[in-house]
Amino acid sequence: MKQSLTHKILSAHLISHDTLPAPGTEIGLRIDQTLTQDATGTMAYLQFESMQLDSAKTRVSVSYVDHNMLQTGFENADDHQYLQSVAAKYGLFFSRPGNGICHQVHRERFSIPGDTLLGSDSHTPTSGGLGMIAIGAGGLDIAMALAGQPFWTGMPKVLGVKLTGKLQDWVTGKDVILEMLRRLTVKGGTGRIVEYYGEGAHNLSISDRFTICNMRAELGATTSIFPSDEKTKAFMKSQKREEGWKELKADEWAEFDENMEINLNELEPLIAQPHMPDAVVKVRDIAGMPIVQACVGSCTNSSYHDLGISAYILKDKAIHPSVSFTLTPGSKQVFEMIARDKDMTLASLITSGARVLESACGPCIGMGQAPPSGSVSVRSFNRNFEGRSGTADAKVYLASPETTAASALKGVITDPRDTGIPYKYIGEMEEILINDDMIIAPQADRSSMKILRGPNIKPLPTFTAMPENLHGKVLLKMGDNITTDHIMPAGAKVLPLRSNIPAISEFTLVRVDPDFPKRAREWGGGIIVAGENYGQGSSREHAALAPRYLGVSAVLVKSFARIHLANLINFGILPATFVNPHDYATIAQGDELVIENAHEQIAQHPENITMLNKTKNLTYQITSPLTERQRHLILAGGTLAYAKQEAEKETAST
Q: What pLDDT is stored for residue 133 in this prediction?
């Protein structure tokens, strides 16, 4: 059979089957590379430490610091010190604060066509723009990969997206992924890998490919991938890594599970309206709306091209008086490039009145630059969830850097084609000054390395096995599209507590109900009920770990987002969906739900579990999407509890 590129790479890394099974079947994959960032890395490495191994077993693993950059107290600085010492102890590369956003740096210095990459950040698929299978996952999955264990996931369907034509002036890769979101919605990619191919794919720049793959996360897909071609080779040559390049593509007439076609010639500048990345319209449909803030940056759009085109639009002009405009270079390399290029990019930005931020995630994760109350902000970021900006009633729109810069110039949402500015293509620089001084490589002799722990780094919580009868009150009932930002907020107040589960648990679901943590403690835990696409967004495992710490034993919804579902299982929270979705309407907060003989039901037929609503004397049929392997994890109390249980059995038998 003619194979897609996705199937070729998965086949080469498959360790659980002889051949790729049908979609939906659980598969185990060998992982070549891992990455973490500081908001998720501390917990991942605490979990890895608990396995008591001498070193990481992966080919390349990198610990990045890019999220918790505001050091208003000791917490973030202590975490950074811990991460650096862990990297030194276990043989990881360490990207120091200021070196850049993990996905930008990784694509510059580490991504290899044909490799697998697992990252504790949902935008890890960025590296798919270089022909990798790059997947976002929870921190515990990273810890297991570091230990040489396979990554387990459902065999995805492959959605082949044939791109034809060529982007018109002022239309970008951001508009391609916004068009994908318009068509598929934020849950349309669930259970799928999106593979781009065709003449249009080869016409796209490397920067555009990275942007498209980055926002795979917003589609809910497992990952996205482009072929590795001559443009890939040119990019790697510019990074002085040409030896790692190889041509990779789908076979001619390859078969995909599903198909879609996008004619790039027909695309226009697009924009996502509040408060979801799939609320997409043409920029011209809402042009003229006043704005007070514009931001270019994030792991989605912080390349040399993105800052260069912004500077070109603003050259010899001033930002509109009503607008605060920020730009973020994605890496030290990008920052240095815009400072040294012949077009005086950095000087043009400063002269225009733009505020150039440090190379970090910054405002994308609510770490600074919160807009004014009730205002409109246009951002070249990846998410516009309500409150994510740091201002609860702000309206955030997502657009390309071209549209964002044009809007900053005019003071209203503006299609860049309507500025009167002649189009100029800004590509990647062909010659780059490579300087890896901010990346600390592993040393051969690590025997004397010590782990440094500040007082905010608390021991990893341990959890008990599931009880024979699972019961609890409904702690909270919510609707559709509850994000991990709802469950566990980011921002400058919460992120410093990522290594302190008792402290961070006090913020669980407070954006939905400020009393949730208190009620969970008073009721001795319980059950969460919600609608479709529960847990979409970030890979943050704290959105499962903190609820488990508060005693949440089960989450009953209409459907789950992929990464959050895996995180719930990893920490021993039973994920379940309604067999009859109409049952959702009969449940209220405070209802007492019970699964009698839970161990027996889950072990024998998780696809048909009986749950009782004792408050209303109703019986529900629910199903849990558990493989045989995952049933053992859930019943033991989670992945680490199961691993400890199996180790004790092995010790006892010897």
A: 98
Identified catalytic residue from 383, 471, 486, 511? 383
228 DSSP 8-state letter: B
Q: Do residues 295 and 326 touch, judged by C-beta distance below 8 A?
A: yes
pLDDT at residue 21 in the model: 95
Our answer to whether residue 95 is catalytic in this structure is no
* Helix (H) or strand (E) run with residue 517 in it: helix 516-522
| Three-state SS sequence of 139-200 | HHHHHHHHCCCCEEEECCEEEEEEEECCCCCCCCHHHHHHHHHHHHCCCCCCCEEEEEECHH
| CA-based nearest residue to 635, from 626, 562, 24 | 626
Which residue in 38, 78, 79, 121 is the catalytic one?
121
Which one is catalytic: 13, 67, 109, 564?
Answer: 67
Catalytic residue among 32, 66, 208, 591: 66
Average of per-residue pLDDT values in the chain: 95
Residue 286 CB contacts under 8 Å (≥ 6 apart), including other chains: 271, 273, 413
Q: Rounded to an integer, what distance in angstroms lies between the CA atom of residue 30 and that of residue 406?
A: 45
Strand partners, 592: 473
3-state secondary structure of 553: strand
Cα–Cα distance list, 457 to 150, 232, 496 (Å): 28, 41, 10
Preceding omega of 599 cis (within 30 degrees of 0): no
Closest to 643 (Cα-Cα) out of 143, 34, 154: 143
67 counts as catalytic: yes
Among 151, 134, 285, CA closest to 212: 134
Q: What pLDDT, on a 0 to 100 scale, did the predictor assign at position 230?
A: 97
In whole angstroms, give the CA distance from residue 486 to residue 407: 29
Ranges of residues in the chain whose predicted pLDDT is under 70: 654
Would the pTM of this model clear 0.90, i.e. be above it? yes
- Res 451: pLDDT: 94
Buried b / exposed e over 217-252, threshold 16 CB at 10 Å, is bbbbbbbbbbbbbebbebbbebbebeeebeebbbee
Catalytic site residue 383? Answer: yes
What pLDDT is recorded for position 654?
Answer: 66
The pLDDT score that the predictor gives to residue 219 is: 93
Q: Which of 305, 498, 540, 542 is catalytic?
A: 540
What's the pLDDT tens digit per position in 184-200?
999 899 999 999 999 99
Is the distance from CB of 314 to CB of 410 less than 8 angstroms? no
- Output the 3-class SS for 88-150: HHHCCEEECCCCECHHHHHHHHCCCCCCEEEECCCCHHHHHHHCCEEEECCHHHHHHHHCCCC
Q: Is 160 left (phi over 0), alpha (psi -120 to 50) or beta?
A: beta
Q: Strands 324-327 and 355-356: what pairing?
A: parallel
C-alpha 277/C-alpha 491 separation (Å) is 19
What residues does 379 pair with on adjacent strands? 295, 398
540 belongs to the catalytic site:
yes
